[in-house]
Each structure stands twice: as structure tokens, then as C-alpha cells.
Amino acid sequence: MKWLFRAFLVLMLLALGLVGAGYHYGQTLLLPADPSNSKKVLFEIKGGMLGNEVARDLARQGLIKDELAFRLLLRFHPQGKDIRVGFFELSPNETALEIFHDLQHAKDLTRHATFPEGLVIPQVASVAKKASLIQDEAKFREMASRGGKSFGAIFPESLEGYLLPDTYEFPYKCDEKVVLKRFTDEFRGRVVPLWERRKAKSPLKTLREVVILASLIEREAQVPQERPIIAGVYVNRLKVGMMLQCDATIQYALGKQKAVLLYSDLELDSPYNSYKHYGLPPGPIANPGMSSLEAAMAPTPSKYFYYVRDDVKNDGSHRFARTDAEHNANIARYQR
Length: 336
Known about the structure:
The chain is mainly α. The protein has three domains: 23-105, Dna Ligase, domain 1, CATH 3.30.1490; 111-196, Dna Ligase, domain 1; 202-302, no CATH class. Helices cover 46% and strands 9% of the residues. The protein has helices spanning 2-29, 51-60, 67-76, 96-105, 121-130, 137-146, 176-198, 207-220, 227-240, 247-254, 290-297, 324-334; strands spanning 41-45, 86-90, 110-115, 166-171, 306-309, 318-321. The strands form three sheets. It has a two-stranded antiparallel sheet with strand order 1-2. A two-stranded antiparallel ribbon has the order 3-4. Strand 5 and strand 6 (318-321) form a beta hairpin. Helix 8 (207-220) packs across helix 9 and helix 9 (227-240) crosses helix 11 (290-297). The radius of gyration is 32 Å and the shape is elongated. The termini are far apart.
């Protein structure tokens, strides 16, 4: 009978040990790793990770007190296999159970960035870098300048002009190719269908011509309602074989912005110098927004061939003229 009593005693001790261990581990799940630390920590769960790997990484980043307790939670809890793949912002002042809940229900992190109208590729790269979308600006510039065709047959080698300005949402973890694909997908989804609807009535023959003209409009027009009028001025010049004489093309050819262009700048030897070459420049000079693209597709019909900035009003608007004499009169009256 002694052996039976001893066996019972052993079983009782084991049961008490299990209860004690369960209580201990249960308590650790209710305690934060660092109650005084509310700083958010970026945590990633990769596809194919095992529960013990998740618990290990949480412990290494100081997010949970007890790795084993969390492993047991993931293994035996009915929702232990429901944790999601992605990036999460967790805090050491959360309890392990709260973190367990976050990993099941929190939304994946994303990044947002706003790209204004009229930027050129290096400026787009700079915005993307500041928003932590890319690591290497030089790599982005190279891909955007030489790898355009890899994103679809509708794109030229250089994506200058095709990086549609807007506010975008990106995956939290992305790279240069992901960012450029987001731009080109947006262009394909918004600009191409619009062109298909309007090209029958457009004075321009191709979408590429539209993008080039829109880039000029983007850099020249400051007042939104003037965009179609300025587009009409350039179309009128193209029709009669006049040089476009667009100052923004000189700025692009110079590779820098100048407050005032000099006469010597207008003699610059560049195919983008619209004071020396007829027709549209060989490519876009900026990345135009939808308003400028729409204006290029549907310019306002007029008899205007000239425009000059109105320095009297000083609001970015222009004065338009039909003849060289009218234009010179506007210069004399409105330029300061």
C-alpha cells in the first residue's frame, strides 16, 4: 500500500506543480515587459514564421516578459494560429495578452507620401527618401530614368512625366521598384483611360505628346483656370510652326532654377531649348498633375499666341495676346 500512497503523492505534487506553473505563466501574460515605457516598437511577422520564432523575437525586442509563456499561449490558445503576417507597432507597456490581441487584429502598417505637381525625377526621389519609401536615391533615379519600359510597353525608357503627382499609400516595407510600380499603375489606371476617351477630339496625336505639353503647362501655369488657355497658346504655335519659347524648358535644360533668365541662357545648346528648336521638346520637363494633363488633352480654343505674367496683380496670372504688338503692349503695361 505504501507504493500506492507514494504514487498518489507524486501525482499530487505534479498536479500542484502544473497548477503553479500555469498560474505563474498566466500571471506573466498579464504583466507588461516595461510598464513605464510607452515607446512604439516596430515588429514584423514574416510569412512562414513559427510561433516560437515570434515569441523569441518579441522577447529580444523587449516586448514581453516571458518567451516560454508566450510560446505556450500561441500553441494552446484557440486563436494562437490567427496572428497575422505584416508590420505592427507594439509597446513594452502593453501586457502580453494585449500584444497577442494586437497581432491578430491590428491593421498592417503602411506609409504615406505626397508628391506635388511639377517635380522632376531627382526631386521625386528626394521626397520618397524623406518618407522612408526608398533607401537609395541614386538607384531610384537610375531606374526611373532608364528602366521605364520594364513597367509596361506604354512607357518610354525615362519615366519623367509619368510619375503622376498625388498622395499615395505604400506598403510599410517597399523599395525603389515598388514605388515606381505604384506610380506607373496609377498613370495607367487614370491617365490612359482619359486619353482613350478624348484622343479623337484632341489636337495632339499621341499620349506622349500630351505628357510633354502637360509638363510645360505644369511649370508655366500658376492659376488653375489658365491651364487650358496656356495649352491653347502652345497648340496654336505648333499649328503655325512657331517656336514655343517656353522659359520652363530653359530651366530644365540648365538643370536648375533661376529667378531670372539671361539672354545668354536662351542661347543654350540643348534640344530642350524651345527658343532655338521648333516643336515640342524631346521629352517631358516635369511630372504634371491631372489638371495639366486634362488641359493638354483639351486646350481652350483661342486666337492667342502669346502670354506674359501680370506683375501688377502679382497673383500668378497672365495676360494673353493675339499679336506681337499686343504682346509687347502687355509687357510694357504689366511687367515690372
